[in-house]
Amino acid sequence: MARREDLIGVWRLVSFMAEDEAGATSEPFGTASSGRLIYLAEGIMSAHLGAGDRPALSDMGASGAERALGAMRTHFSYAGRWRLEGDRVLHDVDMSISPDWVGTAKARDVSFDGEDMILTDRDPGGRLKVGVLRWRREA
Questions:
Q1: Residue 20 — pLDDT band, cuts 50, 70, 90?
Q2: Average pLDDT over the chain, rounded to whole?
Q3: What is the C-alpha separation between 13 and 31, in angstroms, rounded?
Q4: Which of 73, 91, 94, 129 ranks highest by number of CB atoms within 10 Å?
Q5: How far apart are CA 21 and CA 19, in angstroms?
Q6: By the 8 A CB rule, do 79 and 45 touch?
């Protein structure tokens, strides 16, 4: 069973794999995805995920709307409070790049593999069957 102390700290994304309903796997932000996940002892969390090869906004298209859409397609972030219930961490979202996430609780199964923390998302917004995020603690 995970303990609060096991999660507290700053984590770097190692990999993000997704599996759809047909069993096909993908890397939603590509093979060079990047991210940071922060759990504070006070119960505050913040997550930022994105493609590692994001182009500059000036290279994302002619109009401001096209640039904004390109930026949103290659990055995701949210923050709020967190709590641990057994081997599940719940993120109570109070701000997000996606307004639909605000006011929701996102549950993640927690496991550890050596120095890595694995968060498994079994219901990430209805788009994926399973999302597996591997995080490594920052020094």
A1: confident
A2: 88
A3: 11
A4: 91
A5: 7
A6: yes
DSSP SS3 for 3: coil
Alpha carbon of residue 106 to chain centroid? 10
Pair 66, 58: CB distance under 8 Å: no
Q: pTM value?
A: 0.86
Name, in order, each residue with C-beta under 8 angstroms of 97's C-beta and a sequence gap of 6 or more.
72, 75, 76, 77, 78
Q: What is the full DSSP assignment across 41-63?
A: TTSEEEEEEE-TTPPPGGGS-SS
For residue 104, which amino acid is it? T
Torsion of CA 87, 35, 25, 134, to 10 degrees: -40
Residue 127 pLDDT > 70: no
Decide: 94 and 106 in contact? Cβ < 8 Å: no
From its phi and psi, is residue 11 left (phi > 0), alpha (psi between -120 and 50) or beta? beta
Buried b (16+ CB within 10 A) or exposed e, 15-28: bbbbeeeeeeeeeb
Sign of CA dihedral 91, 94, 99, 104: positive
Q: How confident is the model at residue 134 (pLDDT cuts 50, 70, 90)?
A: very high
